[in-house]
Design goal:
The protein is of the alpha/beta class. The protein has six helices and seven strands. It has a seven-stranded mixed sheet, covered by helices on one side.
Length: about 200
């Protein structure tokens, strides 16, 4: 295949979802795309180390040290430099403005650790999602990958996968199982799906 869509992965922490994407790419599961750049919203994100180990260009743009406008301007320049076609938000905790999102129609995907519309919206991120699921007593949770047109959880749902909640689950054990059984499966599939659509458009 001669042409591939260029993917940038935006991260804020450890980068486990990034690792799943890189592993899937190396296994040939994203044939229509290639991860060309990883951007972290803080300089201490271990995701940068993961990217470097896989030979992928990476940089930190420290969100807390910049205005929203300066952060998005710096990010936009990096995306331009790497000729990015698709943004994957993989544990990216910084909010992107509506103006920024509008520049990437149908070109930003996000993963959320629940079955949207459950446990999503303001204040629902990371362990907080799994704490809420356990408080509610649901028997099934999961993950959702969606195209972003509103922040944090608007847009068209691409893929969802259910995960059973076990009687002895803690927020941490549930988070790990949702990542392993849903997020790490769905993100590469969704990236491939959107890359294919980009190349066909």
């Amino acid at each position: 295949m001669l042409k591939k869509a260029n993917i940038a992965v935006l991260v804020s922490g450890g980068g486990t979802n990034l690792e799943a994407l890189l592993g899937a790419q190396e296994a040939g599961a994203i044939p229509h795309g290639q991860i060309v750049f990883v951007c972290a919203s803080n300089e201490t994100a271990y995701a940068l180390t993961r990217a470097a180990k896989h030979g992928v260009a990476c940089a930190a743009i420290p969100r807390k040290q910049m205005s929203q406008e300066a952060f998005e301007a710096a990010l936009s320049q990096k995306l331009l430099d790497y000729h990015v076609d698709l943004l994957v938000l993989a544990g990216f905790l910084s909010i992107l403005s509506e103006d920024f999102v509008k520049q990437w129609p149908e070109r930003i995907i996000n993963v959320h650790p629940s079955l949207i519309p459950s446990f999503c919206g303001k204040g629902y991120y990371g362990l907080k999602v799994h704490e809420a699921a356990l408080r509610r007593g649901v028997k099934v949770t999961g993950a959702t990958v969606h195209l972003v047109n509103e922040i944090p959880d608007g847009g068209r749902i691409l893929l969802q996968k259910a995960v059973e909640v076990l009687p002895d689950d803690t927020p941490q054990s549930l988070q790990r199982r949702v990542m392993e059984q849903a997020e790490w499966v769905l993100l590469p599939r969704a990236a491939e799906l959107v890359c294919q659509q980009i190349l066909e458009s």
